[in-house]
Write a structure and sequence with these properties.
5-stranded mixed β-sheet, mainly beta, 11 helices, single chain
């Protein structure tokens, strides 16, 4: 039976051919990422780089309607897990490259550093404690191609480039052509936990682009995107948790779908532009910008009618709070480039990036305020800003004995970063006069005492020299120095090389040192949850800044930069002009990995904070630490082949990624905490699982695309590897489940009805596959039948139709 299914799948792929990386991009296209040389292509690069074309991204975006989902569909080393009932993680999802942390990948737009998001995720599984780049704030219609460097590049670009670099190249077409594209879609799935056939997650998207000529060689490209997506709900029938009283009102909720694990409702509007203008003397002025506003509606846990968290006068049947997010994102860059004298070329630019996130709640209450409680709250505002000036200079060097001129690049950057938080409504954190939990249910607001404004200055200088040492050997060496006003300096270096045995066979490899500076949020973020403890006394749970007086008294230390040592070795083959294959093995050792500690508590800890700092009722604390080192090893395989078939051209592609992370040098609990009777490790069971087992270690993406005449057919089969989930409910109860590997099949057919107009229909996960059902100890009494970990998601099949008109 399995063999029959495999034969059927292979036959379908042969007949219905989109491919992952490389299928649409020329192997001879010049690369701009990972090197300053102007003649590096996919064929002769010394580093593993994937190039994703505009067409590939369009065909991969349908399932989720966003950039990060398209990257996951095309790149097996890229992981974009869903989040649900995860606070801020419902609104800004974090992505991973090579199984490393979301903040260990550097994102560039047209080669310029992208800013981080402002929201600090404290409840998400992947990316807990990080505020990485928000991929989904980047308009898809603005992108011409994406170059993904799968190797450390700190010596070339500075902080964050431990796992690699994702360089998003914006559309710079010089023609005046434009395009309008509209998409309609929805999930339609057989949901076995409830025996229902569900249709939800309805979406509609509209994208428009337009181009203008500016003078003889200048251009202006701009566009807009608007999208709306309904929420999905994959809750199972409620069984009523055993700690809830079996009252008639509570029992009436049994069997209902009271919870709402799924995708958030989303409204989005984006604008972008990319431009260049030739100046007298041959120089060029350029500018580009992206702006995005996104409003999202997430879910939280249900509160039962007779729960101590409810006020029945407001919610007689119980209530399910909804988190709200308003995300505003801007990047604007302007610069000049051209020749500087007879031999040098230059590129000087100013780069402003800003993100603001307003966090709120609706359909909820502050129980301690009783029936007078508001039902909507503003929980706080988060803001980040990055302003930088950079200058890059390159020239060719005629070195005797070299086959071709060498390339020398020198440059520098000055950057100012800022992070701030503002408090929520007073009612969102108030402790009122009535019995019951204080603060807004599902997420108490940020208190004034925790509001902060942090900034720092960053200076960086680099030098890069590359050359063809012989006709067969190319080498690139880079050295960089960065200085941060808040933690000091870091020096990084990189050496990469490629040796061609024949025009068809080459060996490549790289050695590099890299680093990631602690984000400002990790350096100083503070958050307090205040409630009543025993006897009505106030109690607090606090996230402390690691450099604060209380944290230091408990043994915390100032955060240090993460330092990494990367090594890779790869083999590239080009058996013919129509086929290629590459395999790259790598290892990444990260020292001083930054994580959020476990919650730490003891009576002595509470007493020490009261006696030394005058703060009573602090029951537990946590803070950021450098308490663990990690070692990641992996292998990436990428291949493509094209040939004539059925009167058209058939393109095949294969991309596979394997990585495994192990933990090393886990630090012991500080002596100050041990003396207070705290015996929990700083890096607990769940965080260890996040670092080493939550992301799938193995993924394969097999794609086929056939194009002939007016038709284009594509198929993509993806195998998502297994992943393991561990919960720590205390008292030694740590339920664990490994979710099995799953195959996913995506199909699309496109027909051009005229040179300007085309229609497409397709499906994502048309087999309607789901992850393994969660065991009872993890499924939360039937309410969460599927976990968020598996990249196949928990929404089932999605179908869509698109129309595109070019003019």
């Amino acid at each position: 039976m399995k063999r029959t299914k495999s034969i059927a799948l292979a036959s379908l792929l042969a007949l219905l051919p989109q491919s992952p990386a490389l299928a649409q991009h020329s192997l001879d296209g010049v690369l701009v990422t990972g090197t300053r040389a102007k003649d590096r292509t996919l064929l002769n690069s010394s580093l593993p780089i994937d190039v994703l074309s505009q067409q590939e991204l369009r065909r991969a975006v349908a399932g989720d309607g966003n950039l990060a989902a398209a990257l996951q569909a095309l790149l097996p080393s890229f992981n974009f897990p869903r989040q649900s009932n995860s606070g801020g993680g419902d609104h800004v999802r974090a992505a991973q490259l090579r199984g490393l942390s979301p903040d260990q990948v550097l994102v560039l737009i047209n080669g310029k550093r992208r800013h981080n998001s402002a929201i600090v995720n404290l409840e998400s599984k992947t990316g807990k404690g990080t505020n990485p780049v928000d991929f989904n704030s980047i308009p898809l219609s603005a992108i011409q191609r994406i170059e993904v460097l799968r190797d450390g590049a700190g010596a070339q670009y500075g902080s964050d480039a431990i796992a690699g670099v994702i360089n998003i190249i914006l559309d710079d077409a010089r023609s005046g052509a434009g395009e309008i594209e509209g998409t309609l879609g929805a999930h339609h799935t057989d949901f076995k936990p409830t025996g229902q056939r569900l249709t939800d997650g309805q979406s509609r998207e509209l994208r428009a682009t337009l181009g203008h000529r500016l003078g003889d060689a200048g251009f202006l490209r701009w566009g807009a995107e608007a999208a709306h997506r309904n929420a999905t709900n994959r809750a199972g029938p409620d069984q009523l948790p055993p700690w809830e009283e079996p009252t008639p009102a509570n029992l009436a909720t049994v069997g209902q779908r009271n919870y709402a694990p799924g995708e958030p409702e989303t409204d989005k509007l984006s604008l972008w532009l990319n431009s260049g203008l030739s100046l007298a003397g041959g120089d060029e002025a350029y500018a580009f910008a992206t702006w995005d506003q996104r409003e999202t509606l997430g879910a939280a846990y249900f509160r039962y009618p007779d729960s101590g968290a409810n006020v029945k006068a407001l919610y007689p049947k119980g209530f399910r709070p909804q988190t709200t997010g308003k995300n505003r994102d801007l990047q604007a860059v302007a610069g000049l480039r051209g020749a500087l004298g007879p031999v040098w070329s230059y590129d000087a630019s100013l780069n402003l990036g800003q993100n603001d996130f307003d966090y709120g709640l609706r359909n909820t209450l502050n129980t301690s305020l009783g029936a007078a409680s508001p039902t909507r709250f503003h929980l706080g505002q988060f803001g980040s800003r990055q302003l930088s000036a950079s200058a890059d200079f390159t020239r060719e060097l005629l070195v005797p004995g070299l086959a071709r001129p060498a390339t020398l690049a020198l440059g520098g950057e000055a950057r100012h970063e800022r992070f701030e938080t503002r408090p929520g409504d007073p009612a969102s954190y108030a402790v009122g006069p009535f019995d019951g939990p204080a603060g807004a249910q599902a997420a108490p607001g940020l208190q004034p005492r925790d509001a902060l404004r942090l900034s720092r200055r960053v200076t960086g200088l680099y030098a890069d020299l590359s050359a063809d040492l012989t006709r067969e050997l190319f080498a690139d060496a880079a050295l960089r120095w960065d200085h941060y006003s808040d933690f000091g300096a870091a020096t990084t270096a990189k050496l990469s090389a490629r040796y061609a045995f024949t025009p068809a066979v080459a060996l490549r490899g790289a050695l590099s040192s890299n680093f990631r500076a602690p984000s400002l949020a990790q350096t100083g973020f503070s958050f307090t949850v205040t409630d009543r403890g025993d006897g009505g006394a106030l109690s607090q749970v606090r996230t402390l800044p690691s450099n604060g007086a209380i944290a230091r008294a408990l043994g915390a230390q100032d955060l240090r930069a993460e330092k990494a040592r990367n090594a890779s070795l790869g083999l590239t083959l080009r058996p013919s002009a129509s086929s290629s294959l590459s395999a790259d093995a790598y290892t990444v050792r990260v020292k001083n990995r930054i994580t959020l500690s476990e919650r730490l508590s003891s009576e002595a800890l509470t007493g020490l904070i009261q006696s030394q700092f005058g703060e009573s009722g602090v029951d537990s604390v946590n803070f950021f630490t450098n308490a663990v080192d990690t070692h990641t090893r992996g292998l990436d395989l990428v291949g493509q082949w094209r040939h004539a078939a059925l009167g058209g051209e058939l393109r095949w592609s294969l991309a596979s990624s394997y990585n495994k992370t192990t933990l090393r040098n886990i630090q012991n609990t500080p002596a100050a905490l041990v003396a207070l009777g705290v015996d929990r490790p700083l890096v607990g069971t769940e965080e260890r699982n996040t670092l080493s087992g939550a992301a799938p270690r193995l993924r394969h993406v097999i794609g086929a695309n056939w194009q002939g005449g007016a038709w284009n057919w594509q198929a993509r089969a993806t195998r998502h590897g297994s992943s393991t989930r561990v919960f720590d409910f205390g008292g030694g109860f740590t339920p664990t489940q490994t979710y099995a590997a799953r195959w996913q099949l995506d199909l699309e057919a496109e027909v051009k009805l005229s040179p300007a107009f085309s229609l497409s229909v397709g499906g994502v996960n048309i087999g309607d596959r789901y992850p393994s059902r969660s065991i009872a100890d993890i499924g939360y009494f039937g309410n969460f039948p599927y976990d968020v970990l598996s990249p196949i998601g928990f929404n089932g099949a999605y179908y869509y139709a698109k129309a595109r008109y070019s003019f």
